């Protein structure tokens, strides 16, 4: 195996599962998340000499998967049913993310969800997250703070409804 191939194989092994979890948080469907990430990794391999120099290649993969999903959704938007859109469909237990957390994440505004995914799921620092999303570092911190507060509220509501209190 050549240097580029070995480098990409190591990258894939290290970040595939994290990227799937990150995309799963956005799309709510485990099979779709895996398909989108597979497509994004294929595109990363095709441009590996460029992608490998990206400050956060795993964020590049997640962003590419998001963009692929948007393109897919635009082509099929008239066919997509909207009822139950915040439910996490087909969540794989091994995905490492609780279905209630995924449903709560799907209810966040898109930018807050993106920040949570990049900061928490992919463990990027504030500076890298800001560069990937092309926003200021203070904006990243503000979105993360708001997202965490909203998630606390949403998850507390789920627990209260489950307990019947």
Blueprint of the fold:
Blueprint: H1 3-27, H2 30-46, H3 48-51, H4 57-76, H5 99-106, H6 110-121, H7 126-133, H8 137-163
Helix pairs in contact: 1-2, 1-4, 1-5, 1-6, 2-4, 5-8, 6-8, 7-8
- Terminal CA distance reads 59 Å
The computed structural class is: mainly alpha
Taking all Cα atoms into account, the compactness measure Rg is 17 Å
**Unreliable runs:** 86-94
* CATH topology heading: Arc Repressor Mutant, subunit A
Assembly type: single chain
Mean pLDDT: 82
Supply the CATH class: Mainly Alpha
Largest sheet, if any?
none
Short description:
73% of the residues lie in helices and 0% in strands.
Folded structure, characterized:
- This protein is an all-alpha fold and 165 residues long.
- It has helices spanning 3-27, 30-46, 48-51, 57-76, 99-106, 110-121, 126-133, 137-163.
- Mean pLDDT is 82; it is low at 86-94.
List keywords for this structure.
globular; Arc Repressor Mutant, subunit A; 0% strand; 165 residues; mainly alpha; 73% helix
């Amino acid at each position: 195996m050549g240097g580029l191939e070995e480098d990409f194989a190591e990258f894939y092994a290290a970040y595939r599962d994290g990227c799937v979890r990150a995309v799963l948080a956005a799309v709510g469907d485990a099979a779709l998340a895996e398909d989108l990430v597979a497509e994004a990794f294929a595109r990363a391999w095709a441009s590996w000499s460029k992608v490998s120099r990206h400050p956060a290649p795993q964020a590049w993969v997640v962003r590419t998967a998001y963009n692929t999903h948007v393109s897919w959704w635009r082509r099929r938007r008239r066919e997509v049913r909207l009822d139950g859109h915040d439910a996490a469909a087909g969540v794989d237990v091994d995905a490492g993310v609780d279905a209630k957390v995924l449903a709560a994440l799907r209810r966040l505004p898109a930018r807050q969800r993106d920040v949570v995914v990049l900061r928490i799921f992919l463990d990027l620092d504030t500076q890298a997250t800001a560069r990937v999303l092309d926003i200021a570092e203070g904006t990243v911190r503000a979105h993360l703070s708001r997202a965490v507060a909203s998630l606390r509220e949403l998850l507390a509501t789920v627990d209260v409804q489950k307990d019947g209190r």
